[in-house]
Design goal:
By secondary structure, the protein is mainly α. It has one domain (3-73). Helix content is 45%, strand content 11%. The chain has 5 helices and 2 strands. It has helices at residues 11-14, 17-23, 38-41, 52-66, 70-73; strands spanning 3-6, 28-31. The protein has a two-stranded parallel sheet with strand order 1-2.
């Protein structure tokens, strides 16, 4: 899968994503406010040295680096 998108954490949208991530290779995972899910996402990163807070901070930094605004990402 090249891109997978989770628009919000409601179970009708996000509940199947864990099965997808565990069963199929996903190149890019797009998540609304991804730093809110750092604890859940951490096991899926190749680098197992991330802390929950460190990953959350890195996700925020990446959002700023891309030049996208948080408001834009929340319009889903």
């Amino acid at each position: 899968i090249t891109h997978a998108l989770v628009t919000h954490p409601d179970t009708d949208h996000a509940s199947g994503m864990r099965e997808i991530l565990e069963g199929l290779p996903v190149e890019n995972l797009w998540v609304n406010l991804p730093w809110n899910f750092a604890a859940e996402a951490r096991p899926y990163f190749v680098d197992k040295n991330w802390t929950e807070q460190g990953l959350a901070n890195e996700l925020r930094k990446e959002l700023k680096w891309t030049g996208l605004s948080r408001q834009f990402l929340c319009l889903f």
